[in-house]
């Protein structure tokens, strides 16, 4: 009986080792692939979203949706991934195709922190602010969150997490190709 248990245990260990080797040899690194995320907003119209300019004046979102594809990035100054991605968004804004616009949507910041953040990164695209009701009503539970919206205000794609220029280009290309 003891010998049978040793043989069975050895076979199980060999099978586990074999499986591990097979997984390493057949591993397909998909970390360079980018995809949007399932989200409550996908397919919804957001033109009723309440946003404010830097002076606290209500800003109709429809006036800013001037591109065929509009990138709306929700961020906060205290958010580390937001800090890491902001330079990439600013750079992308300078080199973006003419049919794409970038809009920043600040959440949960005091004016002083928001202004310092914008100056630090030289963000030169429209920056709006939104209150907690936007975060709640539109289910913006993670920062940063970036939504890709058409000119009519319909959300085409949502990306949760930190972006870089390459990811933005891939997501735009996916939208253009109807993915």
Automatic annotation (TrEMBL):
Its main location: other. Residues 40-177 form the Thioredoxin domain. The keyword Acetylation does not apply. Keywords: Cytochrome c-type biogenesis. The keyword Lipid metabolism does not apply. CDD domains: TlpA_like_family (cd02966). PANTHER family: PROTEIN DIPZ, THIOL:DISULFIDE INTERCHANGE PROTEIN DSBE. This is TlpA family protein disulfide reductase. It comes from Macrococcus equipercicus.
């Amino acid at each position: 009986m003891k010998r049978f248990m040793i043989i069975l245990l050895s076979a199980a260990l060999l099978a586990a080792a074999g499986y591990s080797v097979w997984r390493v040899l057949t591993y397909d690194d998909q970390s360079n692939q980018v995809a949007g995320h399932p989200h409550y907003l996908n397919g919804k119209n957001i033109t009723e979203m309440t946003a404010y300019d830097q002076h606290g004046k209500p800003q109709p979102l429809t006036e800013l949706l001037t591109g065929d594809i509009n990138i709306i990035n929700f961020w906060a100054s205290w958010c580390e991934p937001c800090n890491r991605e902001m330079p990439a968004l600013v750079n992308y804004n300078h080199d973006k195709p003419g049919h794409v616009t970038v809009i920043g949507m600040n959440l949960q910041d005091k004016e002083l922190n928001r202004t310092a953040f914008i100056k630090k990164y030289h963000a030169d695209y429209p920056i709006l602010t939104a209150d907690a009701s936007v975060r709640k009503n539109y289910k913006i539970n993670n920062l940063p969150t970036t939504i890709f919206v058409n000119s009519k205000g319909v959300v085409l794609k949502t990306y949760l997490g930190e972006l870089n220029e390459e990811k933005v280009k891939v997501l735009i290309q996916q939208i253009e190709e109807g993915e």
